[in-house]
Design a protein that fits this description.
Layout lengths: L18 H13 L18 H7 L11 H8 L8 H12 L8 E5 L6 H8 L9 E5 L6 H6 L3 E4 L17 E4 L3 E4 L6 E4 L4 H4 L5 E2 L6 H21 L7
Parallel strand pairs: 1-2, 1-3, 3-4, 4-7
Antiparallel strand pairs: 5-6
Helix pairs in contact: 4-5, 4-8
Length: about 240
């Protein structure tokens, strides 16, 4: 058994800190051989160019998979790091023996973080891909008809509980990526819900993920996965990962 020691370093800048402070911090982390992965928490303040932030990260340390070079590799089918949430969705489907090959997969949401990369991954010619993918969004017509036709339905639109039983086909697998804070009579004054009305949608779904506790833990696990892979690449060591 191989023991992996993983340490995290949290660097926090003031919201009104000059953009150059962030870019300089990234450059320092790029140059530090003890740092194997860099993740910048998005969104950044308005005065910071988020595209420049992503470009500033060393592609080998881009464990989020959002550097343009890594996005290009993913689209070409030669990914270095799969973005954490889409990769987590794939691992979740695989763990429960839910086939994507030949399946109709519908993704509601076209973000650069989930919708677009997941669509690219699910159409790849490999065991956890080979799906026929439809990406839906705010301009999609007759959305419910499209979601009802899905064998695998992924909700990633950021709209609280808007997918209900009427939008889920019988026997579908429903993956809820959404995390939304809504007012509630709780100690914190709010609760977290997904994009799917869980109790309603489960009437038709064969498999369904909850929020919280569904995709979220998989995202964190895939961040560690990418970090271990990054450490191996930077050390020129072949690391075998599942």
């Amino acid at each position: 058994m191989t023991e992996i020691i993983d340490e995290s370093h949290h660097v926090e800048l003031d919201t009104d800190a000059p953009a150059e402070d962030l870019y300089d911090t990234i450059e320092d982390l790029n140059a530090d051989p003890a740092i194997h992965g860099i993740l910048v928490q998005m969104p950044v303040p308005d005065h910071v160019d988020d595209r420049r932030v992503l470009r500033a990260i060393d592609p080998l340390k881009d464990v989020d998979g959002f550097h343009p070079a890594n996005v290009g590799r993913l689209v070409a089918g030669n990914d270095r790091y799969r973005p954490c949430t889409p990769h987590g969705v794939q691992k979740l489907l695989s763990a429960y023996d839910i086939e994507t090959e030949g399946a109709d997969a519908v993704i509601v949401g076209r973000s650069n973080i989930v919708g677009k990369p997941l669509a690219n991954l699910l159409v790849q010619k490999r065991g956890d891909g080979n799906a026929t993918v439809t990406v839906c969004h705010s301009r999609t017509t007759d959305l419910a008809a499209k979601t009802r036709a899905a064998d695998v339905l992924v909700a990633a639109a950021g709209r609280p509980e808007f997918i209900d039983a009427g939008m889920v086909g019988e026997g579908a697998t429903v993956i809820d990526v959404g995390v939304n804070r809504v007012d509630a009579d709780t100690e914190k004054g709010y609760e977290l819900v997904g994009d799917v009305d869980f109790e309603s949608a489960r009437e038709n779904a064969a498999h369904i993920t909850p929020v919280p506790g569904g995709v979220g833990p998989m995202t964190r696990a895939m961040l560690l996965y990418n970090t271990v892979k990054a450490a191996g690449l930077q050390a020129d060591v072949d690391v075998t990962l599942p």
